[in-house]
Amino acid sequence: MTKDGTIETRYIWENLGKHKDLHNKPKLFVFQACKGDNVSISFDKNTHNGNYSISFVSMSDYPLPPDILLCYCSAEGMKAYRHIYNGTWFIQEICRNFLMYGRRDDVVSLFARVAKCVSTYTYEYTKQMPVLISTLSRKFYLSKSKDRRNKIAIYDQYHKIYTALKEIEANIANYEKNHHQK
């Protein structure tokens, strides 16, 4: 749902299966738009009376081509939120998580992290829950595996060096403490 009307997202991705150049290649779509006017209530577990309903939307009418990941900012029929100055919760978290973990984690793991982060935001007792739909047949990374392995190895070395420096620092402090007491 947009300010100007409704767009069926299936029109964007349903013809991808016909393009031979895209076979066996991951395809990622991120949709930032309200999917309705309903709101999700953020319940306090101590005051919630248990009266709520769950709706299910079937995708069987719209078969997805292989190797596709659809990322919606909210569930079917639900509103999406944005901060007046900082932008949408969903896009904020995509940027933050992809910058922090994008060279290390696969895309599905990144979007799971994004969904977890977005679900913690609240506005006047309402919240938002992103939805991921995947037909990916393997992990999908944004960086080359060689680069990712090298960066993880560098981080591990950095962590070992940092730990060793902290131990040396503690030993120096102990030495100086004992040296000054004599």
Automatic annotation (TrEMBL):
SMART domains hit by this protein: CASc
Sequence ranges assigned to domain Caspase family p10 in this UniProt record: 58-144
Single GO biological process annotation from the record: proteolysis
Domain (Caspase family p20) ranges: 20-38
Pfam family, one: Peptidase_C14
GO molecular function: cysteine-type endopeptidase activity
Family matches, as SUPFAM superfamilies: Caspase-like
Alphabetical list of InterPro entries matching this protein: Caspase-like_dom_sf (IPR029030), Caspase-related_regulators (IPR052039), Pept_C14_caspase (IPR011600), Pept_C14_p10 (IPR002138), Pept_C14_p20 (IPR001309), Pept_C14A (IPR015917)
Similarity comment: family membership: Belongs to the peptidase C14A family.
Protein name: Caspase domain
Species name: Popillia japonica (Japanese beetle)
